[in-house]
Amino acid sequence: MLVRTHMHQEVELLKWMLLLALAGALTLAFATGIAEANELRPPMDEPALLPGNIAELASPMSAEQTKPPVAEEDVSMKVWQAIDAQYHEDFDTAIVLWEAIQMPCETEVWKHVALGQAYLATDEVENATAALAMAEKLEPENPVVHYFVGVLRLQQAYLADEWNDAEGPRTTVLVAYPPHDVVPNTQSMYRLKAMMELEDAIKFAPQLHLYKSLVPDAWPTEAAMAPTVHDVLLATRANNCAAKAHNMLGDLYLQRGSLEQAEQHMDAAVAGGLSVVYGYSELAEEYENAGRHSDAMRAYLKATQEEPSKIAPLRKAWKNLWDSVL
């Protein structure tokens, strides 16, 4: 019994020794295969550097690169030069300077406004029309644009012909008159369009921001301060454009025989700081011719405050007071 047990233990020990030998042989074969594979693999090259432009783009941004882009030219100084030329009525120089300036998108309208006024001053009606059309396209509700379009229409009315039946009473009527031009290119239609534009100038005047900078403060400049909308208005004589529109409308309504509207616009022009010279006297004469003596007296009294001579309107006011009583 003891001999059988001893033999069984020797057999088990032999099995374990064989298993261990087999495991060692497999491990050695696996390690040898890996070593041979490493010897057969070609050596790896050193990693190459990034291309120059990629390395530049991959570098951290500096503080200067994070700033918003600015104009390379001194736009503020160029605008000041154009404004100065226009203020001193050197319109040819002003036109050349304005044309060469690349304005910011948000204030480009004022470049075309200035060009429109300069072209009007030099009687270049077609160029003025193009400049103001561009300005109106950029800002349809800009009061200064409408003001200058009104001035343009009045200048076109001065240069245009009129329909024969709009020239007033006449003894001879041309039945078969062929007009040289067509509506709206007549004096009366141009005047009507001018009145509409001037009314829009008054309507949109409260929206005007006088001290808006024409050039962003971030743009480099040697100027002490950036030019503003108010500077352009002074150079183009469009400061207080609402009162000036009232003044022109007073005369236009007077020509049309709309006396009440004419008086209202004259009053508004005076309230805006303008002097209505002889406008009230002409209005009073129209009231007087229409037999409206009390209205004529009121207009003559207003004329005494605007005209250099006080005696004549005071005398006429007294006469109309007496006529109104009678």
Please tell me about this protein's structure.
With 326 residues, the protein is mainly α. Helix content is 64%, strand content 0%. It contains 14 helices and no strands. Helix 3 runs parallel beside helix 9 (229-235), helix 5 (108-121) packs antiparallel against helix 6 (125-138) and helix 13 (293-306) runs antiparallel to helix 14 (311-325). Residues 63-70 and 167-183 have low confidence and may be disordered.
Keywords:
326 residues, mainly alpha
| Shape, principal axes of CA atoms | rod-shaped
Number of strands: 0
| Fraction of residues in H or I helices | 55-70%
Described by strand count, sense and barrel closure, the largest sheet is: none
Number of helices: 14
Terminal CA distance: 168 Å
Helix-strand topology string: HHHHHHHHHHHHHH
Strand content: under 5%
Give the class from helix and strand content and strand pairing.
mainly alpha
* Radius of gyration computed on alpha carbons: 45 Å
The mean pLDDT is 83
Q: List unreliable stretches of 5+ residues.
A: 63-70, 167-183
Q: What does the secondary structure layout of this molecule look like, with pairings?
A:
Blueprint lengths: L1 H39 L11 H7 L16 H13 L3 H10 L7 H14 L3 H14 L4 H17 L27 H18 L24 H7 L5 H16 L2 H13 L7 H11 L3 H14 L4 H15 L1
Helix pairs in contact: 3-4, 3-9, 4-5, 5-6, 5-7, 6-7, 7-8, 8-10, 10-11, 11-12, 12-13, 13-14
